[in-house]
Amino acid sequence: MTRKPHLDRAHVLDRLRDMIRIRHFEEACAELYTQEKIRGFLHLYDGEEAIAAGVIPVLGAGDRIVATYREHGHALVRGVPMTAIMAEMYGKAEGCSGGRGGSMHLFDAGTNFYGGNAIVGGGLPLAAGLALADRMQGQDRVTACFFGEGAVAEGEFHEAMNLAELWDLPVLFVCENNGYAMGSALARTEAQTDIHAKAVSYGIEAQVVDGMDVVAVEAAARNAIARIRETGRPILLECRTYRFRAHSMFDAQLYRDRAEVEEWRAKGPIVRFQGWLLENGLIHDTDVADIERAVDAEIAEAVSFAEAGTWEPVETLQAHVLGPQPEPPLPVAPSGRTEEITYREAVKQAIRDAMKRDDRVFLLGEDVGAYGGCYAVSKGLMAEFGEDRIRDTPLSESGFTGAGIGAAAAGMRPIVELMTVNFSLLALDQIMNTAATIRHMSGGQFGVPLVIRMATGAGKQLAAQHSHSLEGWYGHIPGLKVLAPATLEDARGMLWTALQDPDPVLIFENVMLYNRSGPLDTNAGPVDIHRAAVRREGTDVSLITYGGSLYKTLDAADALAQQGISAEVIDLRSLRPLDDATIMASVAKTRRALIVDEGWRSGSLSAEVMARIMEQAFWSLDAPVGRVCAQEVPIPYPKHLEDAAIPQTPDIVAAVKSMLGR
Prior knowledge:
elongated, seven-stranded mixed sheet, 24 helices, five-stranded parallel sheet, 40% helix, 19 strands, alpha/beta
């Protein structure tokens, strides 16, 4: 059944008003940019107004929107106040993102506007995840995802298409095909220029729409959104349009001539629609004049609002990096009964317990279901909880990690398993540019309570591509929390605490620990994830380590004790944030420190710990701070070379003795 727009006078005036409002607002922004009132990148929507005006009014208030860096029009039509948008363009505290996002990052929780996104294609997996949350929660919502034709060359486009079709996700994908990804015509960059055909190849229903015709866009959107509500399945609209202005205000437009632009301007969406309405007597010149007068007054008010707005004080610079911090879990009284258990089984118990306690928790990742996980951590959980909550994914780390981020932003509590730390680099864009930043960019409106687990470390003779220790890299990124459970208690207890956290938490599980076994109290439960632990008391030197190196370090402390050297062993447990207090208290007592880190020496986490000790405890030291790290080589395959490449107990003993002049 065709669901045509009802083109009565009120309706057509609304659509025309939407487009004129976008056009005039952006003309004002361009002028303000030349006056240096607006800074950074400024991407204008001039020529593409029919798409936002045709699609967004069809959406319901509960539906969600994910946009691109060219999103002023989407935000205006969605109902984000123009005053708040203009203040955001200025970077003022009254802006819709609190001044933290600027032109490319408009957010508004009140209208379910999940923001602009400066990363080409970066919003596609996020939209899939928002829709996944709605599907899992049985919500009748549609997520509309806008993106340009340049995004179709990105892996996120293909990964999101596959996930949306595979999982029947209620997403309306809207490709705003303006012919130039930035400054390269589509035919220069794409072997297949028919974008809707790319979606069709994944089995997704797709349609080409004249993106310069607001009526055609609205008709297509009405049909698509109604079908998505009926079927729960994704649809793509390729809206063929044209931007009249440069890619951004920095763009000299050397890639196209003026005649081409003027030819398109003559058939622009406002000229076309307004002319048709006047010609057919649906509106009059006075109506257009009234709209323009009202819009210009609104813009003047928005500019005045932004000009009078306040700059956020420097004292609140650290705001919106992390969400409100929960209280640490209360200690669980030990039962006095223990069971012999492996580290692998402790992690599995943690996942099982979390899924039983909270229906919002689900596990997704490569081979986590039918296969049971690469390291057999999730073996048997699919049979227990079903395929919906133990969710096998394609080999598309960026796609399914982004989907986890979106699901978390929509209220779910996903556990994303990345098979190995080196594979996480394929998802680094989503982790760093979305998960770690969305709270900050949105001025605290959106958070990502997500847990990402991954195996890390060397020792299994997996050679250079599967033996990385990159957790220190992630410890560099504000907005994330980074954990390295080494003990059975932490393997069992960190996950639930992490799932209660409002921020993305990364858990690194060292591959050499999975088979390690020992007694674990049957009442073992959640543990604090913000504190380091003193695993052995000592007086002569502080040995500071984490993860897979803990037990080598404890063995070194035993060996040193036999030689009359008392070593204190600190298990960092949390790599971001670092527990400076525990580190400095230990160093103040022992007056010497050695850091043991399986990461490479250059730029390592050990360097950060050393720097903090020098900054905070220099006058307590009796010797330079030392460290034992991985050798500066890719991890070799032969066992004897692999062992030589990473810290071992004799290396730690030798380093301590050297520090003590022994």
